[in-house]
Amino acid sequence: MPASRPTPAQQVADAVSRLGAATVVDWATGLLTGAEAYDAPDRPPLTVLVGPGAEWLLSRPRERVGGQEYWARTWGARTLLYVWEPAAAPAVVSGLRDPHWRPREMSAKVARARELGEAGDALARLTGDDVRRVRLAAVRALAVVGEGEHAAALHEALDDPEPDVRRAAARALEDLASRLDRPV
């Protein structure tokens, strides 16, 4: 029977045990913002952080990656679900403006998990994103970090063409009203 692949949480935990939390967070934020190349020679191979899923990216010459560098930014954000330092917050907020939808979605998930209030305005804008998964992640995050001024974006999401986004917006409005202890 083949050995099972480690989960992302296990992969990050292993990287933290080898390199330290501060180094892993620094690496992840550099990847997320694009300030650090996924194949930086002064870092261990990306597989240390991501696991075998990164092998395909590392195995191609840069000119043949075909614009798929967004995976490294996505993996940088995902890493922050499992290891955190407050200094990473600006990178996550920046990730909400990424040109590719995958880093935007993952950054919204991190904003929710890490309860980043400073992400509220960017998340409110993402409730109108072209990609359903981004809209859904943004709505769910606003339930946790939104303030009264973000309720309008959630009300607009009640008319989203996707039923799961509409349901999430209704729940988010309930959660927001409960958290703020007032109608929204």
Which key phrases capture this entry?
mainly alpha, single chain, 184 residues, 59% helix
Put the structure in a nutshell:
It contains 11 helices and no strands.
Write up what this structure looks like.
The protein has 184 residues and is mainly alpha-helical. It folds into 2 domains: 1-84, no CATH class; 95-184, Leucine-rich Repeat Variant (Alpha Horseshoe). It is built from 11 helices and no strands. The longest helix has 18 residues, at 163-180. The chain is elongated. It starts with 7 loop residues before the first helix and ends with a helix. The mean pLDDT is 94.
Helix content: 55-70%
Oligomer: single chain
| Largest sheet report | none
CATH fold-level assignment of the largest domain: Leucine-rich Repeat Variant
- Based on helices, strands and strand pairing, what is the structural class? mainly alpha
List segments where confidence is low: pLDDT < 50 over at least 5 consecutive residues.
Answer: none
Shape: elongated
- Mean pLDDT value: 94
| Terminal residue distance | 54 Å
Q: Give the C-alpha Rg.
A: 17 Å
The count of β-strands is 0
In CATH, what is the class of the largest domain?
Mainly Alpha
Kindly report the name of the CATH homologous superfamily of the largest domain: Leucine-rich Repeat Variant
Order of helices and strands: HHHHHHHHHHH
Count of alpha and pi helical runs: 11
Number of domains: 2
CATH architecture of the largest domain: Alpha Horseshoe
Query: What is the percentage of strand-forming residues?
Result: under 5%
